[in-house]
Amino acid sequence: MRDAHELERAVGMWYYASDSDGTGGRLRESPSDFRVTEIEDFDTQPVDADQADYPWLVLRVTLTSWDTNDFAREFANRLGMSRERVTWAGTKDRHAVTTQLFAVRDIEPEDVPEISDAGIDVVGRAGRGLQFGDLAGNEFRVVVRDPDDPEQADAVTADLAAFGGGEPGVPNFFGQQRFGSKRPITHEVGLAILRDDWEGAAMAYLGAPSEYEPKDSQRARRFVEDTRDWEAALEEFPNRLRYERTMLHELADGGSFRDAVETFPSNLQRLFVHAAQSYAFNRMLSERMERGLPFHEPVEGDVVWFAESDAPEGVARPDSSRQQRVTADRVDVMARHCSRGRAFVTAPLVGTDTELAEGEPGEIERAILGELDLEPGDFDLPGEFDSAGTRRAVLLRPDLDVERDPLTFDFALPSGSYATVVLREYLKTDPTDL
Fold first, then answer.
1. Number of helices followed by number of strands (H, E) in the chain
2. CB atoms inside a 10 Å sphere around CB 411
3. Helical (H) or strand (E) element with 2
4. Which of 52, 151, 202, 410 is least enclosed by beta carbons within 10 angstroms?
5. Coil, helix or strand for 298?
6. pTM, two decimal places
């Protein structure tokens, strides 16, 4: 197997599924080179529906070079409301052109502000806000600039077809941006929270300088690690590191380490624990690769989820209510279901309700959790940090269309999956270029 880049290994992605050399090249030379459009799966009522019953105004927003959280904050600030009244179904990349739904509580269409680099259309009304996962998936159109050898795309596709059991498939890793593209630490914060180590969680975010981030950020992080002088650290931390500065203000005012971590918006607080789950999941997939177990079909002991019967066209999704444990006498039957796209081999995103697999897949799951000193009960946490857990398909089968001149990839993925885990196989470059 081909080893991954050190930044990818740091977040549990140890290998590539393809052995061929990559095309090289760069992504996101301009925002229009990386386009993401949600495949919507959220019911709305007409905009003139009774606001008492449907208090949420639903907007379709096309953003250029906007971080999702930053846009939500700017929108809320323009209207003098809490950011918590702005909801969305999936966080998108900053360095891209993205089209997605937002829902905002208790505003009228005429209240919608004009915001630079944001095209905002009113869709309708809803009885609740958007939640993570209220979308079927995302469509991607990605242009690769200055590839070294674009013809290598064919060799990679052939490798991925072998890995996927006849059609291109890639491990359904959580991508680098889940953990921090240049400073992958969100899972470290989450792991510390799960161990009730609030000081460790706060310092993982404030400290831990990375050679891939700007020099002034590195200096500030080293200063706070060396001194624990929160007041003086505020003079060192650049204004762009606003989350860190908010934490430092809390600590300088006498707040606890937990208080500092809880200064994050609620969705980011949840993200820390989700990142810890994601890291464990990535490690399980890497171990499955190392042991040579298939991803496109089950082995004895695997847990398989059947496909949703009413998923939108072009996006196959597993149905959590239709689970099958694979016994020795069911391996062949379940393999046929998986080969036809009717079922998916899964691994756990561990939480309080997680039941682990049996056989060799179960050995992998237990070994990784043991190495991380985690167990399902650790996720029984107060506030925004609690998680019941779920399972997730181990394989992605993107229906890829590859164009030349310029090298361009068109594909769709189910919600929660990452375009970069597909593109990393093709480019095989530094993940900071993805």
1. 13, 16
2. 21
3. strand 2-3
4. 52
5. coil
6. 0.91
Beta strands in 34-134 (DSSP E): 34-40, 56-64, 86-88, 97-105, 118-126
List the catalytic residues: 93
- Neighbouring CB atoms inside 10 A of 332's CB total 10
C-alpha–C-alpha distance, residues 276 and 375, integer Å: 12
Give Cβ neighbours of residue 226 (< 8 Å, ≥ 6 apart).
none
Q: What is the pLDDT of residue 313?
A: 67
Classify the C-alpha dihedral 195-200-205-208 as positive or negative.
negative
Rounded to the nearest 10 degrees, what angle do helices 198-206 and 242-252 cross at?
130
Give the tokens for residue 11.
């977040």
Query: What are the structure tokens assigned to 309, written together?
Result: 């019967």
Closest CA to 194 of 280, 278, 276: 276
- What the block records as the tokens of 125 is 């009304």
Residues paired with 125 in a beta bridge: 45, 57
Write the DSSP assignment of 320-354 as a string of letters. Answer: EEEEEE--GGGHHHHHHHHHTTSEEEEEEE--TT-
Whether 295 and 163 have beta carbons less than 8 Å apart is answered as yes
Contact between 289 and 171 under an 8 Å Cβ cutoff? The reply is: yes
Supply the mean pLDDT for the chain: 95
What single letter denotes the amino acid at residue 216?
Answer: D
pLDDT digits over 347-373, tens only? 999 999 999 999 999 999 999 999 999
Tokens of 191: 């792991």
- Residue 386 one-letter amino acid: D
Give the pLDDT of residue 94. 87
Closest CA to 190 of 357, 349, 353, 390: 349
Beta-bridge partner residues of 16: 2
- Dihedrals phi, psi of 375, to nearest 5 degrees: -150, 160
Identify the helix (H) or strand (E) that includes residue 426. helix 419-427
